[in-house]
Amino acid sequence: MKFDRAAFAAQLRPVWLWHVPVLLVLFVLDQDLTEVATGLAHGWPLYFASEVITPLGKGYNQLPLLISSAVLLAALRRSRPARVSQQALGAFVISAVAANLLKFTIQRPRPLCPAGLAPGWLEALGDPDWLSYPSADAATTFAIAWVLGSGLPRGRLLLWAIALLVGLARVFRQCHYSSDVYVGALVGVLSGQLALCVSWRSRPAPGKGHARPRAKSRASPE
Question: Do you find a cis peptide bond into 111, omega within 30 degrees of 0?
């Protein structure tokens, strides 16, 4: 296994340049943005749209699709699509673990959680749906979109649009603050880039890369 540190470090630089100031602004405006989103979500078109798009961001829907596609493409010996699927699966695992570790560490209650009733460690372990920061749905969806978009450039805009809609739906449904979704997206992008920077060294197949020695032919008796 080989890890490209230079490529991953290059991806980290923009995070500190402008993502952190944007995140600070979102923290300040979180409550106001949540109230605006709640007012907009009262209209049935947006609420219906959020109902349709939300399942696309659920890990229990994403994981079976990623596993089945990786196995199927590998069985069909489609090397490049199979590798992209495997990288997307790796990005999903990394982003899901990172997002949930942050959730249990920070323990920020969701917008719908009444004030003063934020769960402790035991309550959170029993019911992690109380925890808000960051959005795991946004993390896994952006991680998958980042990897698949790198392998399928023609579908990149569609993948990013789906990831953005999943994040907005989490805010419209009062499941997350805007900063939760923003940080979840950052976790997803960094997880996707980490998965792309890890490559597996495979052994050359017989007949490729190394020529087989030819057997010496015996001279025929005269």
Answer: no
What amino acid occupies position 41? A
Contact present, 139 and 95 (Cβ < 8 Å): yes
pLDDT, one tens digit per residue, over 19-66 is 676 767 777 777 777 777 767 666 667 667 777 888 888 888 999 999
Residue 42 backbone dihedrals phi, psi, to 5 degrees? -70, -25
What is the reported pTM? Answer: 0.76
The position carrying tokens 């976790």 is: 187
Beta partners for residue 3, in sequence order = 198
Tell whether the torsion through CA atoms of 40, 42, 45 and 46 is positive or negative.
positive
Q: Give the per-residue SS3 of the chain.
A: CEECHHHHHHHHHHHHHHHHHHHHHHHHHHHHHHHHHHHHHCCHHHHHHHHHHHHHHCHHHHHHHHHHHHHHHHHCCCHHHHHHHHHHHHHHHHHHHHHHHHHHHHCCECCCCCCCCCCCHHHHHHCHHHECCCCHHHHHHHHHHHHHHHHCHHHHHHHHHHHHHHHHHHHHCCCCCHHHHHHHHHHHHHHHHHHHHEECCCCCCCCCCCCCCCCCCCCCCC
Give the integer Cα–Cα distance in Å for 72 and 52. Answer: 27
Q: Are 58 and 110 in contact (CB under 8 A)?
A: no
